[in-house]
Amino acid sequence: MTDHITVADAGNGVRLVTIDRPQKKNALTGAMYDAMRAALEQADLSPEIRAVVFAGQPGMFSAGNDLTDFLGQGEGGFGDTPALRFIRQLARTQTPMVAAVDGIAVGIGATLTLHCDLVYASPVARLRMPFVELGLVPEAASSYLLPLRVGRLKATEILLLSETVDADAAFALGLVNAVIPADMLVEHALAQAARLAALPPGALSASRRLIRGDRDRVEAALEAEATAFEAQLRSPESQERFQAFLSKAASAKSRPA
Protein backbone atom coordinates (compact mmCIF):
# COMPACT_ATOMS: atom_id res chain seq x y z
CA MET A 1 0.00 0.00 0.00
CA THR A 2 1.22 3.50 -0.86
CA ASP A 3 -0.49 6.56 0.64
CA HIS A 4 -3.88 4.82 1.02
CA ILE A 5 -3.73 3.44 -2.52
CA THR A 6 -3.23 -0.31 -2.90
CA VAL A 7 -1.95 -1.57 -6.25
CA ALA A 8 -2.11 -5.32 -6.86
CA ASP A 9 -1.28 -7.05 -10.14
CA ALA A 10 -2.99 -10.35 -10.94
CA GLY A 11 -1.48 -12.99 -13.20
CA ASN A 12 -4.17 -12.46 -15.83
CA GLY A 13 -2.85 -9.07 -16.93
CA VAL A 14 -5.15 -7.03 -14.68
CA ARG A 15 -4.03 -4.34 -12.25
CA LEU A 16 -6.35 -3.55 -9.31
CA VAL A 17 -6.06 -0.04 -7.87
CA THR A 18 -7.94 0.24 -4.59
CA ILE A 19 -8.67 3.50 -2.75
CA ASP A 20 -8.19 2.62 0.91
CA ARG A 21 -8.90 5.52 3.25
CA PRO A 22 -12.24 4.53 4.77
CA GLN A 23 -11.93 6.81 7.82
CA LYS A 24 -12.14 9.78 5.40
CA LYS A 25 -14.66 8.16 3.03
CA ASN A 26 -11.81 7.57 0.58
CA ALA A 27 -11.30 11.31 0.05
CA LEU A 28 -8.24 11.84 -2.13
CA THR A 29 -5.05 13.63 -1.13
CA GLY A 30 -2.26 14.80 -3.42
CA ALA A 31 -0.17 11.77 -2.50
CA MET A 32 -3.07 9.46 -3.39
CA TYR A 33 -3.50 11.17 -6.76
CA ASP A 34 0.21 10.71 -7.44
CA ALA A 35 0.02 7.02 -6.55
CA MET A 36 -2.93 6.43 -8.89
CA ARG A 37 -1.28 8.39 -11.70
CA ALA A 38 1.89 6.32 -11.31
CA ALA A 39 -0.17 3.12 -11.43
CA LEU A 40 -1.67 4.19 -14.77
CA GLU A 41 1.63 5.38 -16.22
CA GLN A 42 3.29 2.09 -15.30
CA ALA A 43 0.40 0.13 -16.79
CA ASP A 44 0.88 1.86 -20.14
CA LEU A 45 4.60 1.04 -20.07
CA SER A 46 4.18 -2.61 -19.08
CA PRO A 47 3.26 -5.24 -21.72
CA GLU A 48 2.13 -7.51 -18.86
CA ILE A 49 -0.59 -5.13 -17.63
CA ARG A 50 -3.48 -5.13 -20.09
CA ALA A 51 -6.33 -3.64 -18.01
CA VAL A 52 -6.75 -1.57 -14.84
CA VAL A 53 -9.63 -1.78 -12.34
CA PHE A 54 -10.45 1.05 -9.92
CA ALA A 55 -12.25 0.14 -6.70
CA GLY A 56 -12.79 1.51 -3.20
CA GLN A 57 -13.14 -0.04 0.21
CA PRO A 58 -16.50 -1.86 0.58
CA GLY A 59 -19.39 0.55 0.91
CA MET A 60 -17.67 3.56 -0.66
CA PHE A 61 -15.80 4.52 -3.82
CA SER A 62 -14.57 8.06 -3.11
CA ALA A 63 -15.90 11.24 -1.51
CA GLY A 64 -13.77 13.23 -3.96
CA ASN A 65 -11.06 15.64 -2.90
CA ASP A 66 -9.85 15.95 0.65
CA LEU A 67 -10.66 19.66 0.64
CA THR A 68 -8.13 20.71 3.26
CA ASP A 69 -5.34 18.92 1.41
CA PHE A 70 -6.62 20.14 -1.96
CA LEU A 71 -6.70 23.80 -0.94
CA GLY A 72 -3.10 23.43 0.23
CA GLN A 73 -2.12 21.96 -3.15
CA GLY A 74 -3.68 24.88 -4.98
CA GLU A 75 -1.61 27.60 -3.31
CA GLY A 76 0.85 27.65 -6.22
CA GLY A 77 -1.92 27.41 -8.83
CA PHE A 78 -4.15 24.54 -9.94
CA GLY A 79 -2.20 24.02 -13.17
CA ASP A 80 0.42 21.74 -11.62
CA THR A 81 -1.41 20.00 -8.79
CA PRO A 82 -1.40 16.21 -8.30
CA ALA A 83 -5.16 16.26 -8.98
CA LEU A 84 -4.76 17.81 -12.43
CA ARG A 85 -1.78 15.60 -13.29
CA PHE A 86 -3.91 12.55 -12.49
CA ILE A 87 -6.84 13.87 -14.53
CA ARG A 88 -4.57 14.44 -17.53
CA GLN A 89 -3.25 10.90 -17.18
CA LEU A 90 -6.80 9.53 -17.10
CA ALA A 91 -7.50 11.10 -20.48
CA ARG A 92 -4.25 9.81 -22.00
CA THR A 93 -4.10 6.28 -20.60
CA GLN A 94 -3.92 3.66 -23.34
CA THR A 95 -4.63 0.70 -21.06
CA PRO A 96 -8.35 -0.16 -20.78
CA MET A 97 -9.85 0.98 -17.46
CA VAL A 98 -12.76 -0.49 -15.50
CA ALA A 99 -14.49 1.02 -12.45
CA ALA A 100 -16.23 -0.86 -9.62
CA VAL A 101 -18.35 1.78 -7.85
CA ASP A 102 -19.74 0.87 -4.45
CA GLY A 103 -21.44 3.59 -2.40
CA ILE A 104 -20.61 7.26 -2.78
CA ALA A 105 -18.74 8.57 -5.82
CA VAL A 106 -18.44 12.34 -5.47
CA GLY A 107 -16.52 14.82 -7.64
CA ILE A 108 -13.53 13.05 -9.17
CA GLY A 109 -15.00 9.81 -7.82
CA ALA A 110 -17.77 10.28 -10.37
CA THR A 111 -15.92 12.03 -13.22
CA LEU A 112 -13.21 9.35 -13.17
CA THR A 113 -15.81 6.85 -14.41
CA LEU A 114 -16.41 8.88 -17.58
CA HIS A 115 -12.91 7.90 -18.72
CA CYS A 116 -13.37 4.20 -17.98
CA ASP A 117 -14.17 1.70 -20.70
CA LEU A 118 -16.50 -0.31 -18.47
CA VAL A 119 -18.27 0.78 -15.26
CA TYR A 120 -20.10 -1.43 -12.77
CA ALA A 121 -22.01 -0.24 -9.71
CA SER A 122 -23.44 -1.77 -6.56
CA PRO A 123 -27.12 -1.13 -5.72
CA VAL A 124 -26.09 1.54 -3.18
CA ALA A 125 -23.84 3.49 -5.58
CA ARG A 126 -24.47 7.23 -5.67
CA LEU A 127 -22.76 9.53 -8.19
CA ARG A 128 -22.63 13.27 -7.55
CA MET A 129 -20.68 16.14 -9.14
CA PRO A 130 -21.09 19.17 -6.81
CA PHE A 131 -18.61 21.52 -8.46
CA VAL A 132 -20.87 24.51 -9.11
CA GLU A 133 -22.34 24.53 -5.61
CA LEU A 134 -18.75 24.86 -4.34
CA GLY A 135 -18.23 27.86 -6.61
CA LEU A 136 -16.18 25.83 -9.10
CA VAL A 137 -16.66 24.41 -12.59
CA PRO A 138 -16.74 20.78 -13.81
CA GLU A 139 -13.43 18.93 -14.22
CA ALA A 140 -11.92 15.90 -15.95
CA ALA A 141 -13.62 16.90 -19.24
CA SER A 142 -17.01 16.11 -17.67
CA SER A 143 -18.52 19.23 -19.29
CA TYR A 144 -17.81 17.55 -22.65
CA LEU A 145 -18.13 13.84 -21.86
CA LEU A 146 -21.28 13.88 -19.73
CA PRO A 147 -23.53 15.62 -22.31
CA LEU A 148 -22.29 13.12 -24.91
CA ARG A 149 -23.33 10.29 -22.60
CA VAL A 150 -26.65 11.49 -21.18
CA GLY A 151 -27.69 14.51 -23.29
CA ARG A 152 -27.33 18.21 -22.56
CA LEU A 153 -30.47 18.63 -20.45
CA LYS A 154 -29.71 15.75 -18.07
CA ALA A 155 -26.06 16.77 -17.90
CA THR A 156 -27.19 20.25 -16.88
CA GLU A 157 -29.17 18.77 -13.98
CA ILE A 158 -26.20 16.69 -12.86
CA LEU A 159 -23.51 19.35 -13.28
CA LEU A 160 -25.32 22.59 -12.43
CA LEU A 161 -27.86 21.36 -9.88
CA SER A 162 -25.54 18.70 -8.41
CA GLU A 163 -28.27 16.08 -8.72
CA THR A 164 -27.39 12.71 -7.18
CA VAL A 165 -27.60 9.78 -9.60
CA ASP A 166 -28.37 6.47 -7.92
CA ALA A 167 -27.37 3.09 -9.32
CA ASP A 168 -30.60 2.38 -11.20
CA ALA A 169 -30.67 5.86 -12.73
CA ALA A 170 -27.01 5.56 -13.68
CA PHE A 171 -27.78 2.30 -15.48
CA ALA A 172 -30.79 3.81 -17.26
CA LEU A 173 -28.69 6.80 -18.36
CA GLY A 174 -25.84 4.64 -19.66
CA LEU A 175 -23.38 5.77 -16.99
CA VAL A 176 -22.83 2.18 -15.80
CA ASN A 177 -22.89 -1.13 -17.66
CA ALA A 178 -24.68 -3.07 -14.95
CA VAL A 179 -25.74 -3.00 -11.30
CA ILE A 180 -24.04 -5.86 -9.47
CA PRO A 181 -24.55 -7.08 -5.85
CA ALA A 182 -21.97 -5.42 -3.62
CA ASP A 183 -20.34 -8.69 -2.56
CA MET A 184 -19.76 -9.62 -6.22
CA LEU A 185 -18.91 -6.18 -7.59
CA VAL A 186 -15.10 -6.17 -7.59
CA GLU A 187 -14.95 -9.83 -8.63
CA HIS A 188 -17.22 -9.04 -11.60
CA ALA A 189 -15.16 -5.98 -12.58
CA LEU A 190 -11.96 -8.02 -12.41
CA ALA A 191 -13.49 -10.77 -14.54
CA GLN A 192 -14.57 -8.27 -17.20
CA ALA A 193 -11.15 -6.64 -17.11
CA ALA A 194 -9.57 -10.07 -17.61
CA ARG A 195 -11.74 -10.55 -20.71
CA LEU A 196 -10.39 -7.27 -22.08
CA ALA A 197 -6.83 -8.26 -21.19
CA ALA A 198 -7.17 -11.55 -23.09
CA LEU A 199 -8.10 -9.88 -26.38
CA PRO A 200 -5.54 -9.40 -29.19
CA PRO A 201 -3.71 -6.24 -28.08
CA GLY A 202 -3.48 -4.55 -31.47
CA ALA A 203 -7.18 -5.04 -32.23
CA LEU A 204 -8.13 -3.98 -28.70
CA SER A 205 -6.08 -0.79 -28.86
CA ALA A 206 -7.33 0.20 -32.33
CA SER A 207 -10.95 -0.56 -31.47
CA ARG A 208 -10.70 1.36 -28.22
CA ARG A 209 -9.47 4.43 -30.11
CA LEU A 210 -12.36 4.16 -32.56
CA ILE A 211 -14.96 3.78 -29.81
CA ARG A 212 -13.62 6.62 -27.70
CA GLY A 213 -13.46 9.04 -30.64
CA ASP A 214 -11.59 12.32 -30.86
CA ARG A 215 -9.39 12.47 -27.78
CA ASP A 216 -8.03 15.87 -28.79
CA ARG A 217 -11.47 17.30 -27.98
CA VAL A 218 -11.43 15.58 -24.62
CA GLU A 219 -8.03 17.02 -23.75
CA ALA A 220 -9.07 20.46 -25.02
CA ALA A 221 -12.16 20.37 -22.79
CA LEU A 222 -10.04 19.21 -19.88
CA GLU A 223 -7.61 22.10 -20.28
CA ALA A 224 -10.38 24.68 -20.75
CA GLU A 225 -11.98 23.42 -17.54
CA ALA A 226 -8.64 23.58 -15.73
CA THR A 227 -8.21 27.25 -16.67
CA ALA A 228 -11.74 28.13 -15.54
CA PHE A 229 -11.35 25.95 -12.43
CA GLU A 230 -8.26 27.84 -11.32
CA ALA A 231 -9.95 31.21 -11.84
CA GLN A 232 -12.96 30.09 -9.82
CA LEU A 233 -10.80 28.52 -7.12
CA ARG A 234 -9.36 31.97 -6.44
CA SER A 235 -12.73 33.72 -6.53
CA PRO A 236 -14.45 35.12 -3.42
CA GLU A 237 -17.57 33.02 -4.00
CA SER A 238 -15.58 29.80 -4.09
CA GLN A 239 -13.56 30.75 -0.99
CA GLU A 240 -16.80 31.50 0.83
CA ARG A 241 -18.32 28.15 -0.14
CA PHE A 242 -15.21 26.23 0.88
CA GLN A 243 -15.03 27.94 4.27
CA ALA A 244 -18.71 27.24 4.91
CA PHE A 245 -18.25 23.59 3.98
CA LEU A 246 -15.15 23.18 6.17
CA SER A 247 -16.83 24.96 9.11
CA LYS A 248 -19.87 22.69 8.81
CA ALA A 249 -17.64 19.62 8.68
CA ALA A 250 -15.66 20.77 11.73
CA SER A 251 -18.87 21.47 13.65
CA ALA A 252 -20.26 18.04 12.85
CA LYS A 253 -17.01 16.40 13.93
CA SER A 254 -17.02 18.21 17.28
CA ARG A 255 -20.59 17.15 18.22
CA PRO A 256 -20.85 14.34 20.79
CA ALA A 257 -21.82 11.00 19.37
TrEMBL record:
Keywords: Isomerase, Peroxisome. It holds the Pfam family ECH_1. The keyword Isomerase applies. The keyword Isomerase applies. InterPro entries: ClpP/crotonase-like_dom_sf, ECH/Chromodomain_protein, Enoyl-CoA_hydra/iso. It is found in: Peroxisome. Its main location: other. SUPFAM superfamilies: ClpP/crotonase (SSF52096). It comes from the Bacteria. This is Enoyl-CoA hydratase/carnithine racemase. The lineage of its organism: Bacteria, Pseudomonadati, Pseudomonadota, Alphaproteobacteria, Hyphomicrobiales.
